Amino acid sequence: MSIRPMIHAGVCALTLATTALGSTAALAEWKPERPVKLLVGFAPGGSADTLARLIAEPLGRKIGQPVVVENVPGAGGNIMAQRLSTAPADGYTLGMGAAGSMSVTFNLNPAATKYKPESFAPVTLLATQPNVVIVNNNVPASNINDLKGYIQKNPQASYGIAGIGISNHLIAESMLSRLGVKMEAVAYKGAAPVITDLLGGHIVMTVDNITTAAALVKEGKVKALGVTTAKRAPQLPDVPTLQEQGIKNFDMPTWQGLFAPAGLPADVMKTYFQAVQEVLKDPATHEKMALLGSEPVSGVSSADFVKYLAKDRAQWAQTIKAANIQPQ
Q1: d(C-alpha 105, C-alpha 167), whole Å
Q2: 240 touches 226 (CB < 8 A)
Q3: Which residue, 270, 272, 247, 236, is CA-closest to 95?
């Protein structure tokens, strides 16, 4: 999905909250006087946790205080987001949010979500990652159109997901909807068992993150049919995007961004925005993020991040409605 600003009526409240940040040059410099918490909504060792720790260490050097990663796992990041939404807006608690907790939940399960979009001050977008459509080696398909034909001839075909409503589930549903075919989604308790059943031929397909997918493809264990972002993934340069294969305007990355509780003072916002930009532009950061399959996205102001989120939420809402996905 493009990060170019797009005006959307649904972001009025958040836009007003960030208007004051339009000119920060004259603001007094804010510096933290004690360590800062960076909340992560997933367990230690995963890709989200690894990225957070990669960002936290140099960010702490920039602001002059340690940035301590605190894992708050559960509910696809929603438990972390709930905690962040009620934290003091004093600059000492930040959160690393993603599509699941900051976009999907408002459309998939709004009644059970205790926080709202306006509960947060979006600081900046950090990174995006492409996802890859992969199939088991027994599937007679070498591209997305082959896969479409296979599904049409095999209506019992199923694909695996690591949970209902996660971004990879919705990316798969969006692709299938645009291809005009249907597959049964089989939900697992994590990504590892999805891959196990894919390798065993029990499911036909999954949409996986670039790091895992690229390793499996290079080892010859699965076939990659398409990349879900607008441009090809450097890790799999020979795999075309879905756009290249005829699915127009398909640009659905996984993303991570830095958030704070709503009401963050403008001088605090300025400190974090500027520090993060310096971190993201550092070649050492680029190199480490590339190993995770992440692409740093620098220069996205709070106001532009608000617009990015509005477009992201609208896209997920459309996908959830079209596929009639229900929370579980």
Answers
A1: 10
A2: yes
A3: 272
Q: Supply 248's token pair.
A: 């127009």
Which one, of 297, 315, 319, 316, lies nearest residue 3 by Cα? 297
Q: Which of 277-284's residues contact partners 24+ apart within 8 Å by CB, and which partners?
A: 277/124, 278/62, 279/55, 279/58, 279/59, 279/62, 280/126, 282/58, 284/58
pLDDT tops 80 at residue 16? no
Specify which residues 158 forms β-bridges with.
184
Q: What angle do CA 231, 11, 8 make, to 5 degrees?
A: 55
- Res 17 pLDDT > 90: no
Task: Give me the mean pLDDT over the 99-118 stretch.
Answer: 91
How much is the pLDDT for 22?
Answer: 42
Q: Are 261 and 121 in contact (CB under 8 A)?
A: yes
- Work out the average pLDDT over 211-220: 94
* DSSP type of residue 267: H
**Cβ–Cβ < 8 Å for 289, 54:** yes
Question: What's the pTM?
Answer: 0.83
Where does the chain have alpha helices with state H?
12-19, 47-63, 78-85, 99, 105-108, 144-153, 167-179, 191-199, 210-218, 266-280, 283-291, 302-323
| Cα 137 to Cα 235: distance, rounded to the nearest angstrom | 20
Alpha-helical segments (H) within 67-143: 78-85, 99, 105-108
For 32, phi and psi rounded to 5 degrees? Answer: -70, 150
Question: CA nearest 293: which of 259, 256, 244?
Answer: 256
Residue 24 CB burial class (10 angstroms; 0-12, 13-18, ≥19): middle
Q: For 231-268, write each residue's pLDDT tens digit.
A: 999 999 999 999 999 999 999 998 999 999 999 999 99
Instruction: Please return the burial class of 251, using the count of CB atoms within 10 Å of its CB with bins 0-12, 13-18 and 19+.
Output: middle
